Structure formats: structure tokens, C-alpha cells
Amino acid sequence: MRKSFLFLLCVLTLSTISAQKKSELKKTEYELKVIELTKNKLVKDAFAIIDQLEPLTRKEHIELTQIPAPPFKEEKRAQYFKKMLEEAKADKVWIDSLGNVLALRKGTKSIRTVVLDAHLDTVFPEGTDVTVKQKGDTLFAPGIADDTRGLITILTVLKAMEKSNLKTTDDVLFVTSLGEEGLGDLRGVKYVVEKSRLKIDSWISVDGTDIDQVVNGALGSVRYKATITGPGGHSWGAFGLGNPHSAMAKALNYFSDEASRFTTTGIKTSFNVGRTGGGTSVNSIPFESWAEIDMRSSSPSQLRKIDSIFKVAMKKGVDEYNRGIKKGPTLTLLLQAIGNRPSGTTSPNEAIVQRALAASSYFTSSPAKLDVVSTNANIPIARGIPAITVGSGGRSEHEHSLDEWWLNEKGADGIKFVLLTLLMEAGVAK
Length: 430
Known about the structure:
This protein is α+β, with helices and mostly antiparallel strands. It folds into 2 domains: 29-219 and 343-426, 3-Layer(aba) Sandwich (Aminopeptidase); 220-341, Alpha-Beta Plaits (2-Layer Sandwich). The protein has helices at residues 2-27, 29-38, 41-52, 54-65, 75-87, 148-164, 187-195, 244-262, 300-323, 351-363, 378-382, 411-426; strands spanning 92-95, 101-105, 113-119, 133-135, 138-140, 171-177, 202-206, 213-218, 220-229, 233-234, 269-277, 284-285, 288-297, 332-341, 344-345, 369-373, 387-390, 395-397, 405-407. Strands 1, 2, 3, 6, 7, 8, 15, 16 and 17 form a 9-stranded mixed β-sheet that branches. A 4-stranded antiparallel β-sheet has the order 4-5-19-18, with no helix packed on it. Strand 18 and strand 19 form a beta hairpin. Helix 3 (41-52) crosses helix 6 (148-164) and helix 3 (41-52) packs antiparallel against helix 12. The chain is elongated and about 85 Å long. Residues 5-25 have low confidence and may be disordered.
């Protein structure tokens, strides 16, 4: 009886192991492709070239960081990076009518076009000191990581492909775009995707430095500048006239209450009153009060709902305030859209996501995580183009601050990861 039980146990164990192996085989389909590619002589040559280029990559990283690229004033950096792409020997390099810099590297079949993208602009205003300072092994400068490291990464990818004669089957379009940050509102990518006549089949953005994270979710946002205006006057002599600040406070209070209730349930959604202003002096009734409001969600429907809540609450607050004005004209409300980033998701089951996860696992000890972030990839995702955002390697902190830093901790692995992800998506010519 005991022997029969042991025999049955062995059979069940072997069956379980067999089932697990079959399951693992499905899960590792893309990992097997990674192994195949990393054994390819040309790919190994390209990886070796990335290592050899490290001193030059560092030098160019510093040089490019020190070329200012304030919001809406990226021209100087664009021209400099265009020259760098030309020297890297892309097949065609040009600046489009908006100011994006593009470089095309033809594939052997040119059936599809895969974009590799990083953004030119930083968040820092004109006049910011962008001199790179080194402390120990760490580089400090505004924009050193976000996204100058991304620009240098895609440049080095192009160089490695050229120097190793590594050809893809699909065309690769290198896009360095304007206006990713702040009120730039993704204007560069919007132009490439929505207004240019370029045919794009998939999109890989390089932004951030973590290579154990693949962004497949687009965190959307809607932004408004709300302005309430009135006649203004002396705080004593014109007392009783409508006060735009008081009306703004009432309207924003209605919005905050309604939005707080709405955001307690469902897919995560946020709201923020980021800036306010108006008025001339403490003893003057202001003629204007303004506020800038940001609302975010990865869900398009949630974004539409909180957008509606905002508009209704603002009108309600101003209308209610106007009913209590003792003299003079009523106040007027103007809502001006200052930002619209669509939300959406590239399915985790999409090949581009699985390819990036597999490429990440090759270079990291722990499985890569999927994430939701606002990046250039928002636009292709919203237009149904398979798109992701990946990191460029190394380690960084304090992005968007004057204390931003980048450390070359296995930075070459980040460039190899981006190259491998690109090759998984664009195919390697035989």
C-alpha cells in the first residue's frame, strides 16, 4: 500500500513539474528571444562598443547638459543635437516645422517604423545655471538626468548600431521632441503623431533612469487657468463691489469638496490647485483673481468626470457669489485650458511590453515592474499605437530641482537595455 502511495505521489509530482515547465515555456517566450539576440555576434559587438564609448558618452552627456533648453526655448539644444545625430551617421537627419529633431535609420525591409524618443526640453527657466559639477563620482546639474541622459542614450544606441553594422528589419526613427515638460503639454510628440505624415507602428520613449520599470500606462491630465474679473476699486471707497478673490475662494472650495468626495473611490484620480494670483495692493479690491488647476488620472472616463466636476463647481461658486454683490456689475469667470494629456494603457499582453520586460530581466536581478506615468508615450498610447517608456540607466534623484544628480552606476547596461528593447521590437536583419 505504501509503495503504491509513493508511486502515485511520484507520478503526481512529475505531472506537476511537467505542467510547470509548459507554463514556464509560455512565460519565457520573449526571454528566449533575448537570449537568442544576445548571442548574435553583431549584438555582442554593439554591446562592446557601448562599453568602449563610455568616456565619450560621459563627455557628451556633460556638454549637452550645459546647453540650456528652457520651456519653449529648445532651439539651441536642438541644433546642437542635430549635429550630433549627423556625426553618428544616421541615414537622414532633419528638424521639422515645429522644431523637433528627427533621424531616420533605414531597415532592410522598411515595412514598419519604430520610434525611439527622448525629449529636448527641461523644466528650468531661462537663466538657470546648468553648469555640471562633479562631486566624487556623481554629476550634479539641472536636467542632467531628465532628460539629457535619455538624449545621450539614444545617440549612443545609434552610434553602436552604426559602428557594429547592426541592421534592423524595420525602420528606426529617432525622435528628439520639444515640450514634454509642464506647459509644453507634449507639443512635440503631438505634432509628430497627429500632424506629420510619418507612419508610426510602435513607440519607445526613453525618460527616467530606472531600467527595472516599464511604463505602459499613460497618466493623463487636464489643466486650466481660471480667471475671475470685476471692476476693482478702493477697499474703503468702493466697498460693496464684487471681489474676485472672494469669489475664487468660494468656487475653489466647492470644487475641492466635490473633487475630494469623487476621488475617494474608483481608479486613482488627483486634483491640485497649483498657483494663484491677482490683485494690486492690500487696500485695493482686485480687478482679477486667477488660479491654475491640475487634474490627473490614468482613466479617460475618470478624467472626464473630474473635469466636469471642476467646471460645474466653478460656475456654481461664482454664480452664488454674484447673487450677494451689493453694488456694481457681476463678476465674470473664464476657464482657459492650458494642458491636455490623454490617458490610456498599452496592454501588458502587447508584444512591445513583454519585449521590454524580458530585456529588463536580462540586466536586472529582480523582475521589472509595470507603471503609470505621464510621458511622451501618452500621445501614441491614446492614438492606439503600442507605446512604452523605459529608463536610460545609471542612478538619479531630485529631478526637476536644482540639486538634480546622476551617477554612472552600470550606466552602460541602461544603454544596452534600450538597444536590446529596440532590437526586440524592430527585428535584427540576418
